[in-house]
């Protein structure tokens, strides 16, 4: 009989749906950029809960915000609003292109809201024929049936029956393919301003600016999925702010709550009215606990000190990864922006990214993958230099371990 007060990894196989294949160790405690497992073994966290723990683990200000709100009010229905939700929405509106905000619980839910708004706006304004959505191969937008179909990875969307229709996928950064795909029946274009799950692929500046121009010409709404790139991850509050392009709708999640589940759809006064009462909703979206934490996260990240610090830390990681590569020659390039970085494997190690992740855990450092060929790093935006250096030292041990196989 398993001790429920000290559950083991084996219990996962007994009681959990086998959607995941988690590591053998079970983390129980975190502080800053370090995590400890059940055996009190320490790990440096370069994964950040998949770009979520933007201020590390158990940041005192976030613990304080959560505790304070927990003693006030946890949940209401959307028959009422609440103070933390209003304060957070005001912060977002004052610091982005947006005029209006809709709160949800996850990136997938925020993207679902983005797509529903775009379809409803087109339906109301132009008629039901204007319903086409353009998205990009290797894109990722969530796991709801609508968002996983818009995402450009069939392995995630196949096998569940008939898919939502009128969705076209084209190669990322291919402007000619985009020109051929967009027309007056296109209602929306959904794009990541830096592809995450698809391999940490940055957009060509001319490409993304042409996409904006053509969307405007065809009255198609441009949706930026900033679930992973938002909240300082690339060195500005949102990635669009350094591309010279403003979307019509934007999704944000992951780092927004610093580890507490929350997401939001951002849009303007022109489009927001098309989600009138009854057309969309969320029981938990905008709940006081999540919004109180996210408001504090927003306050702490949206400072020159943190945002400029992201660019400094990016260079620490690039220098460290390049030094490892000079010795072991495993990476073809270091991709990405800010603290969303990808070490792409050479052809010799193609398909083996997960081996580096597993070896990393064995050596006391947590990393991610982005597909089978890219090792992904998405650490805390305020990770100290000593943790970067120690984590890279452990990661070098992991690289050596994989190569020794």
Short précis:
With 405 residues, the protein is of the alpha/beta class.
Task: Outline the structure in words.
N(2)-acetyl-L-ornithine binds at residues 143, 282. By secondary structure, the protein is an alpha/beta fold. It folds into 2 domains: 9-58 and 304-403, Aspartate Aminotransferase, domain 1 (Alpha-Beta Complex), CATH 3.90.1150.10; 73-301, Aspartate Aminotransferase, domain 2 (3-Layer(aba) Sandwich). It is built from 13 helices and 15 strands. It has helices at 9-15, 48-51, 60-70, 83-95, 107-126, 145-150, 154-157, 175-181, 205-217, 288-301, 304-328, 353-362, 385-403, and strands spanning 27-31, 34-37, 42-45, 100-104, 132-136, 167-170, 186-191, 221-225, 249-252, 263-267, 331-337, 340-345, 365-366, 368-369, 374-377. α4 runs parallel beside α10 (288-301). The longest helix has 25 residues, at 304-328. It starts with 8 loop residues before the first helix and ends with a helix.
Query: Any idea of the CATH topology of the largest domain?
Result: Aspartate Aminotransferase, domain 2
What form results from the Cα inertia axes?
A: globular
What Rg is obtained from the alpha carbons, in whole angstroms? 21 Å
* Average pLDDT for all residues: 97
- Following the backbone from N to C, one meets helices and strands in this order, namely HEEEHHHEHEHHEHEHEEEHHEEHEEEH
Distance between the termini: 37 Å
The CATH architecture of the largest domain:
3-Layer(aba) Sandwich
For the biggest β-sheet, the strand order reads: 4-10-9-8-7-5-6
Number of domains: 2
Put simply, the count of helices is 13
Modified residues (N6-(pyridoxal phosphate)lysine): 254
EC number: 2.6.1.11
Organism: Celerinatantimonas yamalensis
Keywords: Amino-acid biosynthesis, Aminotransferase, Arginine biosynthesis, Cytoplasm, Pyridoxal phosphate, Transferase
